[in-house]
Design brief:
9-stranded mixed beta sheet; 727 residues; alpha/beta
Length: 727
């Protein structure tokens, strides 16, 4: 008995078959049998199979007439003689050469019936992760009535215990042409298997192949409907709660909508969807079905099409253009290409001028270490006069967590710090702290810096000043740079002892990194990192809010050249951060997230945090439970959102600064202004109030109470608008 059987249905995949077989044969795990079921191929697929079988005795070829993928997989199951079985498509391949090792060892260690691993989708745009497995909260979830919707529907991303499949006679339905893997996965789910989660991407799935089922719209909705009918006939399905059954039905309804939209709203597909609609009407109560948005859309689709034929404005399928329909005539309008932010472009130009002068003159201004204490820990901050009050909180938190025998040299890059704010900041310093303030526009004799304040939606020109650290501070062993919107929650002395390991920069990965490799919706951001920034490893993109420069090891000539080249790029989203990622790529040592915990993750991006997996998730949880530096990333700050997670850390420290009342006053005014602005902009509040008022008067069923509550909520919002308008 082999440890793993690999079942491969083969039908006219001559173009991809060799790569598929090579990826299996060259695995480090050798105790396998490879069962290739030739399903009546008419191309050279069979000849390729015979060629490989003559070289590898583990390959078994089974020939049959063309009966479809379900029949081929079932035939393979009949021949399988192993502990575990995996299903492989003939046009796919393994991404990892140790896939069998990883999958088999995990299920054996946990004594699991099914192991679930990640996979990459391969499309025309390239590789990206379709990471269903990352939605699991634990490696071995308790399977319940609703857990199925966190469980992937495919079979190519799993390893199955053979005894489990045979014990419950789980096979593919040969009468079903679409969604056969969905039904197979459901049959496994109904029999309560024990799962193992494998937090690695092992497989590459080739999507949107020209002759694949998902790319062929003929009878696609009819075939899907037949799959649901077959599912409904199963006794196990009928035992499931009604909500579960309706969610499964909704999955098929959404699939029908997807087919209709993908294939240009083909009217025949709309007619085909009526088969499924009619079946659902026969077997489920109308009031239950009407709760399903997809059901309502499909039921009214012909009316919607009629209205669209008269007048409509919509995106083209690839969203590149607008299509306007007027009385049946269609007009296509090209979308204008998105212009680059003029503030960012202008600021890049100004900073570039300075670096060009430095490159030509080869003479660099210098900031020297403190003569009285050469062993001081050096931290650079950069902010404008308005931000001084928020920097005071970062400074106070650092002082509070620093021992009296540790010395700190605080260096500030600022062009407009007032005497009053400077005096208040210096008054906060204990004996073991020194503060030095440098006007960058005076150092480089460039008045344009002070005139260029805005760089982006909430960035200031000061954000570029960290780029000057290697030039201005060559005599320092290392320099820690920190953004001013942070608080220190513990001592950071160990940061000044960490070895660079021959790297030039130390920083933490940006929070975008885990999601960019697991979330398809981040595809545009991934393309920006690859095509605009030209990063070879975008999954190693760093956040520049906390970073340590290995100043003495940086070659300034190369550094300035790279900075100038980076400043020529017109599509920077986060200018300073993007530039540092370009300049120091492959020369970065990665710090634990606890030294740069981005507060927007638990506050604004909880869904992204749920997608963190493996070592990312472990690192995130460690940082969340015990952060050393909390970085108030995003335009939402604790002083505007005091209810946010970790906001109390900011306010506890702010009360101990001389700027506390100023922070309160400024943000009370801001909140009042933003409230008026936002509420007045949303005039639909008024419209919705009168809508729910009318619905409450006309409705007599159970929804009346819900409408009444909504009406009162809107009425309260209108009262607030009027109140703030009078202030």
């Amino acid at each position: 008995m082999s440890k793993i059987s690999v079942i491969i249905p083969v039908y006219n995949v001559e173009q991809y078959l060799s790569k598929c077989l090579d990826s299996i044969i060259n695995q480090t795990f050798k105790d396998i049998e490879i069962i290739c079921v030739n399903d009546g191929s008419t191309d050279s697929s069979l000849q390729i199979l015979k060629k490989y079988a003559s070289k590898d005795e583990r390959i078994t070829i089974i020939n049959q007439e063309n009966k479809g993928v379900s029949s081929a997989r079932n035939k393979g199951l009949e021949y399988a003689n192993s502990e575990y079985v995996m299903f492989f498509d003939g046009d796919d391949y393994f991404y990892s050469s140790s896939a069998f090792d990883i999958a088999y060892n995990t299920v054996i260690e946990n004594n699991s019936d099914i192991g679930i691993f990640g996979y990459y989708n391969l499309s025309d745009a390239g590789l990206y992760v379709d990471c269903f497995y990352s939605k699991f909260k634990e490696a071995d979830p308790c399977v319940g009535a609703n857990n199925y919707f966190d469980y992937p529907i495919f079979v190519h991303d799993k390893i199955f215990r053979t005894k489990f499949l045979k014990k419950y006679n789980i096979r593919f339905n040969e009468n079903v042409k679409n969604a056969e893997d969905f039904l197979f996965s459901l049959m496994c789910y109904f029999n309560n298997p024990k799962y193992s989660l494998i937090n690695k991407c092992l497989y590459v799935y080739r999507e949107n192949r020209a002759d694949s089922a998902t790319n062929n719209h003929i009878n696609c909705i009819k075939n899907d409907a037949q799959a649901f009918f077959a599912l409904y006939d199963l006794a196990e399905f009928k035992k499931q709660p009604l909500d579960f059954q309706l969610k499964i039905a909704n999955r098929f309804l959404n699939a029908a909508l997807w087919y209709i939209k993908k294939f240009d709203e083909n009217l025949q597909l709309v007619n085909d969807s009526k088969i499924l609609i009619k079946f659902l009407k026969t077997h489920y109560a109308p009031d239950k079905l009407k709760r399903l948005k997809a059901y309502r859309q499909l039921s009214n689709y012909e009316r919607i099409l009629l209205l669209h034929s008269i007048f409509s404005i919509r995106n083209s399928f690839n969203k590149s253009d607008k299509i306007c329909t007027v009385l049946g005539l269609k007009f296509r309008f090209k979308r204008r290409s998105k212009k680059h932010n003029p503030d960012i472009l202008n600021s890049q130009k100004i900073v570039k001028e300075i670096f060009l002068e430095l490159n030509n003159e080869k003479q660099f201004p210098n900031i020297t270490p403190l003569s009285e204490n050469q062993n001081s820990n050096v931290i650079v901050f950069s902010f404008d006069n308005n931000y001084a009050k928020y920097f005071s909180v970062a400074l106070k938190s650092l002082i509070s967590h620093t021992a009296d025998n540790k010395f700190y040299d605080i260096i500030i890059f600022s062009d407009d710090l007032s005497e009053r704010n400077e005096k208040l900041l210096r008054g906060m310093l204990p004996e073991n702290f020194r503060m030095r303030i440098y006007n960058i526009s005076q150092i480089f004799k460039n008045t344009k810096l002070t005139k260029q304040t805005k760089v982006g939606s909430y960035w200031h020109i000061n954000s570029y000043y960290r780029l000057f650290i290697p030039i201005l501070m060559q005599q320092f062993e290392r320099v820690l740079y920190c953004d001013s919107d942070i608080v220190f929650t513990s001592a950071i002395d160990e940061l000044f002892e960490v070895s660079f390991e021959n790297k030039l920069l130390m920083a933490a990965l940006d929070s975008i990194t885990p999601t960019i490799i697991v979330e398809c919706s981040e595809k545009k951001r991934l393309e920006q990192l690859k095509k605009v920034l030209k990063l070879k490893n975008p999954e190693l993109y760093i956040n520049s809010g906390v970073c340590i420069f290995n100043t003495k090891k940086i070659d300034l000539d190369k550094y300035i050249t790279k900075i100038i080249n980076a400043l020529n790029i017109p599509g920077l989203l986060y200018p300073d951060q993007d530039i540092l990622n370009i300049v120091f790529e492959n020369n970065i040592k990665y710090l634990p997230w606890k030294y740069n915990f981005e507060w927007h993750i638990p506050n604004l991006s909880k869904r992204d945090a749920d997608l963190f997996f493996g070592s990312f998730r472990e690192e995130y949880l460690k940082a969340y439970n015990n952060p050393s530096i909390i970085h108030f990333t995003s335009n939402i700050k604790p002083w505007t959102s005091p209810q946010g997670i970790f906001a109390e850390k900011f306010w506890e420290t702010a009360r101990q600064t001389p700027f506390y009342e100023e922070i309160l006053f400024e943000n009370c005014c801001k909140i009042k202004e933003s409230t008026i602005k936002n509420l007045n902009q949303k005039r639909k509040i008024y419209f919705n109030y009168y809508k729910y008022k009318l619905m409450t008067a006309l409705t007599k069923n159970s929804k009346k109470e819900r409408y009444e509550i909504k009406k009162m909520e809107l009425k309260e919002q209108i009262r607030n608008i009027r109140h703030y308008s009078k202030l």
